[in-house]
Specification:
9 strands; alpha+beta; two-stranded antiparallel ribbon
Length: 170
């Protein structure tokens, strides 16, 4: 497996992967979808390009030039690396790719002197929260409102959504 930094030429492929993982067109394509919570695209290629101006997207592939199997947006603040938009191709889920990607980011963060990783998850996604907890993340108690006024994240289907922050000490 190879891990590379994305650039703007990867924007379409990243958006397609993230949308397939979070908002698949058909039910049952993976266990990470947000069905019943948020509809529409999770991210557009233009938003990926905008994110690349200030953050990194890391891509996990079988070998250089092959299809993206997993990706994550990585941003740094003080001594913490924040993960977001972590996605694994639904057809590849169950192979440990998400865990592998987190481990690679964790190793890089530790080598860079960072002290923790954090991620925000929709609080209703208990199965996903439990998955992160099995990988050493702990709820911080921080809960922030869902960005209902941001059409770039899709169309919320419920009015009780919020994001919880999980953190892993390095």
């Amino acid at each position: 497996m190879t891990l590379i930094d994305a650039d703007t030429q990867h924007a379409e492929e990243i958006a397609a992967l993230v949308n397939a993982a979070y908002r698949p067109r058909e039910r049952g394509q993976g266990w990470t979808d947000e069905q019943g919570l948020v509809a529409g695209d999770r991210i557009l290629p233009a938003a990926v390009i905008q994110a690349l101006a200030c953050d990194r997207f890391v891509l996990l592939r079988d070998f250089p030039g092959s299809t993206i199997l997993a990706c994550a947006r990585v941003s740094m603040a003080e001594d913490t690396v924040h993960l977001s938009t972590l996605a694994v191709d639904p057809a590849e889920q169950g192979r440990g790719l998400g865990t592998m990607l987190i481990k690679r980011v964790e190793d890089w963060a530790r080598e860079s002197g960072m002290r923790s990783l954090s991620i925000s998850v929709i609080q209703q996604r208990q199965t996903l929260i439990a998955w992160y907890e099995r990988r050493g993340f702990v709820a911080t108690g921080e809960v922030v409102p869902f960005p209902y006024d941001n059409p770039a994240v899709g169309r919320p289907l419920r009015n009780d959504l919020a994001l919880v922050t999980l953190q892993k000490r390095l």
